Amino acid sequence: MKQIFFVLFITSAFLISCKNKSESVQVNEAQSVAEASGKSFMVSSATSKVLWFANSPGGGHNGTFPVADGSLTVDNGVITSGKFTIDLTKLTVDDLSGEDKSNLESHLKGTGGKGQEDFFNVTKYPSSSFEITKVTGLANDKEGNALVYGNLTILTVTKEVSFKANINILENNVTVTTPIFQINRTDWGLKYQSKNFGALKDEFINDEVKLQINLNAGIAQK
């Protein structure tokens, strides 16, 4: 019986690992942002969000980065430019509750009694942003119909990243959804408890952070 439970546990862990498998994005120096041309769509803060997933040897956490605002422009059925802003002051931890939840959120925001600069330091840097540099088509790929390139700014660092996305363009609505992808947080100066920057073997936090973007934009009102 114990052997059966052990096999089931290993199988479940393997399936979860496969489900959460994600690609690391390519990171380059910041590039010129795309010029706006075409019909304008305004990103809805109520129905748009960025999900995050972080892990360490002791376990993991997940949560949400709220999207504060943004815009997309479309010409001939193609996104030509766009940007959105994340409100870091309202980030959430979604897998905890009560005091554990509030303590971790405060630590990530840097609003607690200590560790102000461990992660986002929202008092000094209340937002993060992404600005599109280009969008190219992607054919015969199960994870997306486009490759989106853009400048991601966190704290004082701006880097261009690229990721797959499913883009759906209608007359009065545009949605952009991505598979889960991962970035290396240290590329943006987030080095707290990184094993590559002096963290103890049993206390490090993985450098890789997984993200999933969900944007919903409606036709801009004139």
Précis, in short:
By secondary structure, the chain is mostly beta strands. The chain has two helices and 13 strands; from the N terminus they run αβββββββαββββββ.
Give an account of the 3D structure:
This protein has one domain (23-219): Lipocalin (Beta Barrel), CATH 2.40.128. The chain is built from 2 helices and 13 strands. By secondary structure, it is mainly beta. Strands 1, 2, 3, 4, 5, 6, 7, 8, 9, 10, 11, 12 and 13 form a 13-stranded mixed sheet that branches. Strand 5 and strand 6 form a beta hairpin.
Mean pLDDT: 88
Helix/strand order, N-terminal first: HEEEEEEEHEEEEEE
Low-confidence stretches: 1-20
The separation of the N and C termini measures 68 Å
List keywords for this structure.
single chain; about 220 residues; mainly beta; Lipocalin; 13-stranded mixed β-sheet; about 15% helix
